[in-house]
Amino acid sequence: MAVTSGDRALDIGTGTGTEVLELADRVGPDGDAVGIDPNPDMVDVAKSRAAAAGSRARFVAGDTYHLPFPDEFFDAVRCERVYQHLDHPAAATAEIGRVLRPGGRALLIDSDWATAIVHPGDPGTIARLATVLRTLGPNPESGRFLRGLLTAAGFSIASIGSEAMICDPRTARILFAQVIDRALADGVITEEEWMALLAELKIGITKGDYHFSVTMFAVLGHRMP
Questions:
Q1: Would the pTM count as exceeding 0.90?
Q2: Distance CA 30, CA 39 (A)
Q3: What does pLDDT average to over the chain?
């Protein structure tokens, strides 16, 4: 994002504000680092963290579709793992373009849940669970669409990258708990199939022969004049 002293930077879906604290250090006293999140409780946590750190980072409540900032206000906008939750990603991208100055940078980062890998286990059972995984949110394959969304919104693409988010067993259990509940309730898998898969996973984890991951994509675009 090339954020430097004096820049104005925005982090959308900021959560507890870790990235905004870093941005505040980079923009310095002459810049502005802002985080926005739709959850007021998360905003309160982020504000408390910033106060404890003596940071100039600031936080506001709001959503991606209606950013409470003037046109062409920011030099850089960062948005991570938000698009998978959006019903109208094109509208959100247009709003990001609105608040960026010409030449400003937008960095979109998101998962593509069609790339999820689970090992070990019966391939058929895992494939059926994957179909459920891709129905849990409005935009589960968001990672693959980021480039096109930025291009359609008038951005030139500067860089694209990807990285597998590799989960430990505890994190994987949290991520997939909702998938298992839905799959069992809808009859996508049987209780016996789930027990068999769980047994294989437990053996694999004990042996150190397991893998849980999903690919995340990052696209950096520059707003065209």
A1: yes
A2: 28
A3: 97
Q: d(Cα 216, Cα 63) in Å, to the nearest integer?
A: 22
User: What digits encode the pLDDT tens for the residues 8-64?
Assistant: 999 999 999 999 999 999 999 999 999 999 999 999 999 999 999 999 999 999 999
Q: Which strands, in side-by-side order, build the sheet including 100-119?
A: 58-61, 32-37, 8-12, 74-80, 100-119, 211-223, 155-166
- In whole angstroms, give the CA distance from residue 215 to residue 110: 9
Checking DSSP bridges between strand 155-166 and strand 211-223, what pairing results, if any? antiparallel
CB atoms within 10 A of CB 48: 13
- 59-91 residue pLDDT tens: 999 999 999 999 999 999 999 999 999 999 999
Residues in the chain: 225
131 closest CA partner among 190, 196, 201, 182: 182
Report how far residue 50's alpha carbon sits from residue 144's, in angstroms, rounded to the nearest whole number: 33
What pLDDT, in 10s, does the model give residues 156-194? 999 999 999 999 999 999 988 999 999 999 999 999 999
For residue 112, which of 83, 89, 86, 75 has the smallest C-alpha distance? 83
Distance CA 114, CA 1 (A): 27
> According to CATH, what is the number of the domain 63-223?
3.40.50.150
Q: Which residues of 89-119 are buried (b: 16+ CB within 10 A; e: fewer)?
A: beebbebbbebbeeebbbbbbbbbbebbebe
